[in-house]
Amino acid sequence: MMNSGCNCKWGGCVPSKIAKILLFIGGLNWGLVGIGMFMNTNLNIVHMILGSVPMLEAIVYILVGVAAIMKIFGCKCKKCKANCAACSCSTGSSDNKTEVGM
User: Which residues contact 31 (CB under 8 A, 6 or more apart)?
Assistant: First the structure.
């Protein structure tokens, strides 16, 4: 398991932190959508909150998608690169190989 204190993929810049929050919200929402499908009900929280404003709802879904792309490729800003360089999980030392490999 990765070190919970590792900031390699999230750096510390504001866009990275917002992306992390959006991925959390998006993941929970899709989990609830799946549970709702089994229960024959609509548990889409984003739609429940923003359903009366379809354009805003679409923007939230697009932002969650952009956050996922940021997570895949990582943030390339100076602050995140500096945090990644200083991170102990990316040093390749033998102590951390089991954590990084999982």
Answer: none
Q: Which residues contact 79 (CB under 8 A, 6 or more apart)?
A: 11, 12, 13
Question: Tell me: the pLDDT tens digits for 75-88?
Answer: 778 877 777 766 66
Cα(3)–Cα(21) distance, integer angstroms: 19
> CA end-to-end span of the chain, whole Å?
5
pLDDT averaged over every residue in the chain: 79
- How many CA atoms does the CB half-sphere of 5 hold within 13 Å? 5
Read off the DSSP letter of residue 89.
Answer: G
pTM value > 0.70: no
User: In this structure, what DSSP letter does residue 57 have?
Assistant: H
